[in-house]
Amino acid sequence: MKNKLKLGQAAGVVAFAIIIGAVSMSSSSTVDARASLKENRTVNAGVALGLTEAADATELLTAGATSALTYYGDELTVAQNDNNVVTASAQGAPQTDDASQESEQANEAAQTPTAAQTCGYTNLGMSVISSGNLNIRQEASTDSEVVGILTNHNACELLEDAGDWYKVTSGKVTGYVSKQYLVTGDEAESIAEQEIKTVATVNTETLNVRAEKSTEAAVLSQVGNSEAFTVNSVADGWVEISVDDSVGYISQDYVTLAQALPTAKTIEQVKYGDGVSDVRASVVSYALQFVGNRYVWGGTSLENGIDCSGFTMRILGKYGVSLPHSSKAQPSCGTKISASDAKPGDLFFYGSGSSISHVAIYIGNGQIVHASNKRDGIKVSNAFYRSPICVARYLPD
């Protein structure tokens, strides 16, 4: 029988592709297939599309390659046997499914943004300090004015290498930080991956925090515009957040959700105008030393863990004010005043309705410092992030 193959027309060179079941050829590869026919003809096959039919109904072109193999640029030998069946066998090492999957996973990983990229950092630095705060200074000198503070594992953008210092920006603060307390590169990224959180920022003037995921549920408190909260979960149009000692829900319609890393705190709140006593300034300066430390319900240690009323008790206790370890009982120990008359060192009380469940120290410029909750620890917040139930004064003017 004459061995004739109809293999298309392309300037006298016939291109064909052998495809069967789980055998796949990379569309970017061209396989040089050699047909060992009786007339010793050689056919160049550009593997791309489909399988061409044989010369007549009695001739069949099939592929005898092992299934589930993917070949890239290997030589494919095509031979005809006595039964007029053209078979194909591949030369060279195949790429198995496992290797292919590994390659795909590597490509996906390369395309996945890092924690730094997700949060908008191009040259990330992370603070690493064992205790206390890391000062951000106006100039690259320990004699320069402190313009902000970083706590452990806070993020910053590195702007400039200044010898033993980095010029950084973090949150609303820009200044210089000692290099020995910052890590960069892979080490910074590793920490960032652990610290990245979803944050909900309030974008309306006042937002109710509900006890349940319903507008009919009781209002636990109210939070103010631009206040940011770490998100516990999001479901059914509601965002679960921790507000001081309690968990509540805010409507997803009135917040902006984003991935974020913890950043520096400004110390503008410790810069006071005329009429603020040295004692009040000292109270605030002392309290801010503990920002970033742990919250522990019932705790009384400023270094190792403390709750909200324990915090106010310990801070004011240093200045001769004796307070019970109870946010509900502390207001009666002072003189109640209007929030608009508050001075640094006064206490703000919060809760639901008329029931007090949280207390904070006012530090001036509309800011408070407080032992907030287990997630955030001791932190600085807007004094009106919730509606205060009352404000009380304990220090002399």
Care to describe what's here?
This protein is mainly β. Helices cover 13% and strands 36% of the residues. It contains five helices and 29 strands. Strands 24-29-25-26-27-28 form a six-stranded antiparallel sheet. It has a five-stranded antiparallel sheet with strand order 12-11-10-7-13, with helices on one face. A five-stranded antiparallel sheet has the order 19-18-17-14-20, with no helix packed on it. The termini are far apart.
Provide the fold topology.
Elements: E1 24-25, E2 33-36, E3 60-61, E4 70-71, E5 76-80, E6 85-90, H1 97-111, H2 115-118, E7 124-127, E8 134-137, E9 146-150, E10 155-162, E11 165-170, E12 173-178, E13 182-184, H3 185-195, E14 197-202, E15 206-210, E16 219-224, E17 228-235, E18 238-243, E19 246-251, E20 255-260, E21 265-266, H4 278-288, E22 300-301, E23 305-306, H5 308-317, E24 335-337, E25 347-352, E26 355-364, E27 367-373, E28 377-382, E29 390-393
Parallel strand pairs: 1-4, 2-5, 3-6
Antiparallel strand pairs: 5-6, 7-10, 7-13, 8-9, 9-21, 10-11, 11-12, 14-17, 14-20, 15-16, 17-18, 18-19, 22-23, 24-29, 25-26, 25-29, 26-27, 27-28
Share of β-strand residues? 35-45%
Describe the global form: globular
Q: What about the largest sheet?
A: 6 strands, antiparallel
* Largest beta sheet: strand ordering: 24-29-25-26-27-28
Count of individual helical segments: 5
Average pLDDT over all residues: 78
Span between termini:
115 Å
User: Runs with pLDDT <50, length 5+?
Assistant: 1-80, 83-93
Helix content: 10-25%
Structural class: mainly beta
Query: Over the alpha carbons, how many angstroms does the gyration radius reach?
Result: 35 Å
Can you count the beta strands?
A: 29
